[in-house]
Design goal:
- It is a single chain.
- Helix content is 39%, strand content 12%.
- It has ten helices and nine strands.
- The protein has a seven-stranded parallel beta sheet, covered by helices on one side. It has a two-stranded antiparallel sheet with strand order 1-2.
- The longest helix has 17 residues.
- It is globular.
Length: 287
């Protein structure tokens, strides 16, 4: 297994198991530095979103850096996401804006970022209709080849089942918070049932998990960083990860997760930390 180890999506597209998350990377310089460090470290997947406001900066960095490393557009996998403000009627406008900002010909994976709609209450009965309208738009752009694969983020099991009952094209990916304190057992079963790739974000629990005593003990025994242990725990279960950092050394460290293996005992110890802890957003109340 390596950083470019492919996960086969249900569209036939291959997605690298390791990607760079770009949430909170702001401005040309910071994005350029992070992308440069990631490419050197072997990353070939980059995850952005309309709400991150860095799609154009990511595009600029890739256009400058890919030739430097003898790479082409086809060598990288780009994920972006539809913002909650564009859910529903504005979905086409939002998706086309992402395509324009990225200016890379196509987007490898495009997700509905959130099951709700910005400006509506979480319990608003218009949310399901808006989701369905957004998905129909993504299906249209997928048919045109502008979005090579389409999926969702932050969906609950109920949202997933609702989508599977109405979609013409099933989602290729579900991207959610996943780490030893949040095993997402039901969601993973739903994804397995429907042939959807389950992808992790916030693998380090917003940095909280790197100080957990169990993680620290395993890291010490493995002579690895706590971050590497947490990321390895996921990829060892064939779950793709998207560690985010602006620090070149940390980006490099986060990529060094393919030259060691956690023992079955360590895997069990880490999974035993599960307590349903969410460090990010909770979409369970979205109608």
């Amino acid at each position: 297994m390596s950083s470019t180890h492919p996960v086969l999506l249900n569209t036939g597209v291959q997605m690298p198991i390791l990607g760079l998350g770009t949430y909170k990377l702001v401005g040309c310089e910071e994005v350029y530095q992070a992308v440069d460090a990631a490419l050197v470290a072997g990353y070939r997947s980059f995850d952005t979103a309309a709400v991150y406001r860095n799609e154009a900066d990511l595009s600029r960095a890739l256009k400058e850096l890919l030739p430097k490393y003898g790479l082409t557009r086809e060598d990288v996998f780009i994920t972006s996401k539809l913002g909650p403000k564009d859910q529903g009627k504005k979905a086409m406008e939002g998706a086309l804006c992402s395509l324009s900002q990225l200016d890379l010909g196509y987007i490898d994976l495009y997700l509905i970022h959130w099951p709700g709609t910005q400006g509506l209450d979480v319990a608003d009965k218009r949310n399901p209709g808006n989701r369905a309208q957004s998905w129909a738009t993504l299906e249209e752009l997928h048919a045109q080849g502008k979005l090579k694969a389409i999926g969702v983020s932050n969906y609950t099991p109920a949202h997933m089942r609702e989508l599977m009952q109405s979609c013409k094209v099933p989602p290729a990916v579900l991207q959610v918070e996943f780490h030893p304190k949040l095993l997402q057992t039901e969601l993973r079963k739903v994804c397995e049932e429907y042939g959807v790739c389950f992808q992790a974000y916030s693998s380090l629990g917003k940095g909280e998990l790197v100080t957990d005593p169990v993680v620290l003990e395993i890291a010490k025994n493995c002579e690895r960083t706590p971050g590497q242990v947490l990321l390895r725990w996921a990829v060892q279960q064939d779950v793709p990860v998207l560690p985010k950092s602006s620090n070149p050394e940390r980006i490099k460290d986060n990529g060094r997760i393919f030259d060691f293996t956690l023992s079955d005992t360590d895997m069990v110890k880490l999974s035993a930390l599960d307590c349903g802890q969410k460090y990010c957003w909770d979409s369970s109340q979205v109608a």
